[in-house]
Design a protein that fits this description.
The protein is an alpha/beta fold. The protein has helices spanning 23-32, 54-57, 75-96, 115-129, 145-153, 171-182, 201-211, 249-255; strands at residues 12-16, 36-40, 63-66, 100-106, 134-139, 154-155, 158-162, 165-166, 190-194, 199-200, 217-221, 243-244. It is 35% helix and 20% strand.
């Protein structure tokens, strides 16, 4: 939070995906600021695909922060998941009197036709077309994305990494931005958050592996088809973003 950002009265915030990579940070940031937080998950009796158990969890909630995610490359699966859960959250929010619906999305998703990104584009459309007061935060790839790439693309002593230009940001700073936005009036608009500097994903992976003391060969490969735009910066803001993260990638590595 910036020094000029006045601390508001305590809010009651519901976090969809509260046990996920960003959601856990959102919960921690919001509670540290004195807000009351409720997590929306199956483990707490809430099914966001049909709304069961959701109504009572949203009683008295001021803002819903949607950080839900799903591991899929299928356009159909991603679109069905994101549009269904968003409609369920928006309708339940209407009935409960929630005054602000926030959705976490990704910078550049309308430039690259991957299945997951198409699902996020469809989700954004559902939120925009609703009559609910909302804010969409598009963030660039996370610093943590390099770790995920190693896990997914590693083959013994070799890891194959797409050659893509990125401006990664720490997931914790994405969470701070979401809570900052929840403390404001709904923008009924989309804002973008980017990292403090740009770099190539294969280089970030090399630095991660070097930090871990691993002698793994990193092989950069061009992204085929719809992913070609990523090499020229489609996953970075086209203009000046609403905000940039402060923590550089190497500082993030050392902090871990």
């Amino acid at each position: 939070m910036s020094e000029s950002h006045a601390r508001p009265e305590a809010l009651h915030i519901a976090v969809a995906g509260g046990t996920g990579q960003v959601g856990t940070h959102v919960t921690a940031v919001a509670r540290a600021r004195g807000h009351r937080v409720v997590s929306l998950s199956r483990g707490e009796g809430v099914d966001l695909t049909d709304g069961s158990g959701l109504g009572e969890r949203l009683a008295g909630v001021d803002a819903v922060i949607d950080c839900l995610s799903i591991q899929t490359g299928s356009t159909r699966v991603a679109t069905d998941f994101f549009t269904t859960t968003s409609r369920v959250l928006l309708e339940a929010g209407r009935e409960a009197g929630v005054s602000h619906h926030l959705t976490l999305s990704i910078v550049g998703i309308d430039q690259i036709g991957f299945g997951y990104y198409r699902g996020k584009v469809a989700q954004e459309a559902v939120v925009k077309e609703s009559d609910r007061p909302h804010t969409i935060l598009r963030a660039t790839q996370f610093h943590e994305f390099a770790e995920q790439m190693v896990e997914r693309m590693g083959f013994g002593p070799v890891v194959v990494i797409p050659r893509m230009l990125v401006e990664t940001v720490a997931a914790a700073e994405v969470a701070e931005a979401l809570v900052d936005l929840a403390e404001e009036r709904p923008r009924t608009d989309t804002v973008e958050l980017a990292g403090p500097s740009s770099g190539w994903m294969p280089d970030l992976v090399r630095r991660l592996l070097r930090h871990r003391g691993r002698r793994t060969l990193v092989v950069p490969v061009p992204m085929p088809g719809a992913g070609r735009a990523a090499a020229s910066g489609a996953l970075t803001p086209a203009g000046v973003p609403w905000r940039r993260g402060r923590q550089e990638y190497d500082d993030w590595l050392r902090a871990r």
